Known about the structure:
- This protein is mainly alpha-helical.
- Helix content is 85%, strand content 0%.
- The N and C termini lie far apart (47 Å).
Amino acid sequence: MERDEIDFGTLKVSVLFRKLFIPTLFGMLSISAVTVADGIFVGHGVGSDGIAAVNIYVPLLMLFQGVGLMIGIGCSVVASIHLSRAKVKAARLNVTQAMIIVTALTLLLSLLIVVFPDRTACLLGSSDRLLPLVKDYLLWFTPALVFQMWTAVGLFVIRLDGAPKLAMWCSVVAALLNVVLDWLFIFPLGWGVMGAAFATAISVSVGGVIVVVYLSFFARTLRFCPLKRSRKSLRLSLRNVGYQCRIGSSALLGEATLAMLMFVGNLTFMHYLGDDGVGAFGIACYYIPFVFMVGNAIAQSAQPIISYNFGAGVRERVIEAAQIALATAVVCGAVVTAVFIGSPRLLVGLFLDPATHAARIAIEGLPWFALGFICFIVNLTAIGYYQSLERVGIASGFALLRGFVFLVPSFLFMPRLCGTEGIWLAMPLSELLTALVILGVSLWRRQRIG
Length: 450
């Protein structure tokens, strides 16, 4: 297992950020590629109904992923501060507690979903026509959620342990395996949506196993350690993980924003444009995790630098890391926006024949949807900054604004004001309003401190 020596306290901040960001970005994009590979093969092997069915399930996956990111970020922040103060044993305890709690919680919730598949699918907004396809995906992928959660938490720890390249390859291997299995299960074997779910389940399981093996046997500092089995130890573990959840709560809200975007968007498109509308929106939702992962990669690359130096009391390095992260967010956001505005037909054509009704809806709507990407990535970076400083209230407040306070009303009122284009513009409006609030709060805090 390759391990990189990284000194968060003395290495030049720009070099340190680049050393973390490049492998983190490729790793994050590989995670998104798992989902997109599903969409491409499902779109060509099953059709727009298959894409719509998977998109119905995705909000549930996003919520689980959000819990994993919440605990992973909280664990990483706490462990970073412990390491900056030479408390290695405390850092290991926090990592071990986080992985045990997330495993138990995921297994319990997964069991409930598998036992009640019809009710779960209906709660997610499935129509009668899409219900069999949604159930197929749900029943074959849900048992692998625990491996997905191990990956979500463990990649933070692996990067903090000084092995960002290993974290990247953990995601890349899972993504490549998923592509191969998607093709095999959907086309030669003809398993349809069930095949896509089974392929994704296998690929995320491989990634989760790599994480656990590394943290068990190969980690340089943050190895698993034994926990006491007394009631007092259990209470302390729950308290520590609760604190981690509080720190990382805005990450859960960030994923909940995606889940809410997809859930409310599915309902809105279903209301105005029917199943084909949901299929068109599903294509956009296959791409939005890419945008999310770019912002997430920037925030996660800056997080250990900011948290470590914040714990060490080196304010200048904290500010420099934040400035580099914000500049990276603006540049990445502009590049992604240009790609989506300039090539909607090509991007949609990867999933569906451009001549189909669902594809035409997506081609017309994707450029409007892409107008929100710069603010989307900048907002994620700003939230990650406050998260890294343990400013939980501010980070959570911003996450609530973009995910609920602004997003739901935008979906309700924009279609009435702008017609079909208004549905696509709901997310950009929500992100723009959130960015303005973040800017206002940041200027106010700077004046207050100055």
